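Quick start: what a row looks like.
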Amino acid sequence: MKVKNICCIGAGYVGGPTMAVIALNWPDININVVDLNQERIDDWNSEDLSKIPIYEPGLAEIVEKTRGKNLFFSTNVDEEIKKAEIIFISVNTPTKTYGEGKGMAADLKFVELCARQIADVSDSDKIIVEKSTLPVRTASSLNTIFEQKNNGIKFEVLSNPEFLAEGTAIDDLLNADRVLIGSSQTDEGFKAAKVLSDIYAKWIPTNKILTTNIWSSELSKLTANAFLAQRISSINSISALCEATEADIDEVALAIGTDSRIGSKFLKSSVGFGGSCFQKDILNLVYLCEYYNLNEVAEYWRQVVKINDYQKNRFAKNVINSLFNTVNGKKISFLGWAFKKNTNDTRESASIYIADNLINNMAQIHIYDPKVSKYQIHKDLSYLWEQKGYTKDQINERMGNIIIYNNHTDATFDSHAILLLTEWDEFKEYNWKSIYEKMKKPAFLFDGRNILEKEVMNNIGFNFKKIG
């Protein structure tokens, strides 16, 4: 099959960067990213590259090189589906908030709607690529939808999970550890996998392109995120023990990380993990295990999420206890709202839950993040409070305790305590002596990312506390 047109349904954190990199490496293939959200598409097409809805280092430069040449963003979903030989499904798969599997299972509503739309409008054979994070055996459901059309058109479903770390997504795409492609174990499946493999082989060494059966590929995505999250929760559980015994978590992490059987990655203790994948995928794995009556396995992985919640709650409790057991009416400054540096993604950010905890204790929260908008912060908190059952009036009342700034100086002025919650590089470069001088005394600084030097901060005068 000669590929002339690729369509990606979903212009979010996965679809946009992935298609931009493919467009960069394949100038003779038209890449069309479609989404029903007109505002998002307008932002992707904005002449002001700072308005691109996804912030990733290097992404704007690639979009500038390819957009309008062979990379296009539109809401013309049906038209682009018809033209494409390969269709990537890259829509959101949030955790269900209703019905069977509530709080654990993935909500596949948008994936199913995509499949039905593809089946309805297609008039030629297609390769369908699962790019969204999906539970194992989703491909079977998609095939059932496609087979019901019975119009002679052939759809071959592939699993091609993303393994991107937000903040390094472009480098992860250009220099991938591996590309995983799962297919049905048939001649047609192998041929489709070869077509997709050849796309990636333009810039990825062939020995890093792995092919498996489709079920293994789907499960590998959930398992990879579960294992990474498990390491973070494991080191965070030890951070609590370090604080109790006066051991140092960074020294412990260094010591065990030099063991080649363990390795050094994902042993950085923090206020807790966030992002779009870890918690969602672990809970999906828990649901899958419970479905197959593997209750002990389900409980094991559930504990990874519980330790993460414990770490966030422990951090907030430490703030309250340190500030003489009350934060009522006190100005608490948050530096960072994104779940990690070099991204504007806030999904499951620890900051959301710590803010909620402190507002429950009547604190005044003052926030600065270099890439997250006021609109997004309000949206994050409103969603959490809606899920907790607060009325609109109650949400508005709680929102009165939130003030958002476009610079760190105003956000920290006259503050009782600063909570460093995202590891943005710029935070290390601040004039912390100047910040200290303009705070209420005693001035507390809680480093939830362990990026500042304790001795330096103590010498300035801060009552400084770090994780572990």
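That is the whole record. The mean pLDDT is 95. Residues 40 and 53 are 7 Å apart (CA to CA).
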